[in-house]
């Protein structure tokens, strides 16, 4: 099942018709966490015009697993629009999970000051008051997102990373790193873990 979900995610446009099935799989609390996360991540290359309502429900449900909520949030933010950003602001304002709140807060804070050309459209869409509540910035204790861009004049590089903690563990549940190099107006993804 896991391999099939990853293949659907890699298919992108051809997989747009699978969004309802992916949503059902992601929302099924009796499915193993690994399968639920793979179903969420399968949305990564599916066009933004596809139905993402299941992701919004997962992100905004406070009783849902922290890792599931953060994964859903990240996939939603790949296709930002004013309605989504309004919902993110409202969810953040009422957030009861320190892990989810700290992650979303750190992500939005980093996006507001990023110099990554690929994130400029998202940065420009963010309303000034999107951060409606502050959370702890202790990355060794709470889930967090980091974004660093370096410019060399003829090109640049962007490194982003994420740590996702569980309320029941001192060790991170997942770690993500991405390195993208910008040369001559093109972006090359060199590393994604």
From TrEMBL:
It comes from Albula glossodonta (roundjaw bonefish). The keyword Glycoprotein applies. InterPro entries: Lipid_transp_b-sht_shell, Lipovitellin_superhlx_dom, Vitellinogen_open_b-sht, Vitellinogen_open_b-sht_sub1, Vitellogenin/Apolipophorin, Vitellogenin_N. One of its GO terms (molecular function) is lipid transporter activity. Residues 142-193 form the Vitellinogen open beta-sheet domain. This is Vitellogenin. Residues 2-108 form the Vitellogenin domain. Pfam families: Vit_open_b-sht (PF09172), Vitellogenin_N (PF01347). Keywords: Disulfide bond, Glycoprotein, Storage protein.
């Amino acid at each position: 099942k896991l391999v099939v979900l990853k293949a659907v995610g890699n298919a992108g446009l051809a997989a747009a018709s699978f969004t309802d099935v992916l949503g059902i799989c992601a929302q099924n609390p009796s499915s193993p966490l690994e399968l639920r996360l793979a179903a969420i991540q399968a949305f990564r290359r599916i066009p933004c015009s596809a139905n993402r309502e299941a992701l919004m429900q997962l992100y905004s449900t406070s009783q849902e697993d922290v890792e599931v909520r953060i994964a859903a949030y990240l996939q939603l933010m790949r296709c930002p629009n004013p309605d989504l950003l309004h919902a993110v602001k409202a969810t953040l304002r009422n957030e009861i999970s320190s892990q989810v709140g700290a992650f979303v807060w750190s992500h939005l804070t980093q996006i507001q000051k990023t110099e990554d050309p690929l994130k400029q459209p998202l940065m420009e869409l963010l309303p000034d008051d999107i951060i409606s509540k502050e959370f702890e910035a202790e990355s060794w204790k709470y889930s967090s997102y980091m974004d660093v861009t370096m410019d060399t004049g003829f090109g640049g590089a962007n490194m982003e990373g994420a740590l996702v903690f569980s309320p029941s563990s001192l060790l991170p549940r997942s770690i993500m790193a991405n390195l993208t190099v910008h040369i001559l107006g093109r972006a090359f993804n060199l590393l994604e873990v």
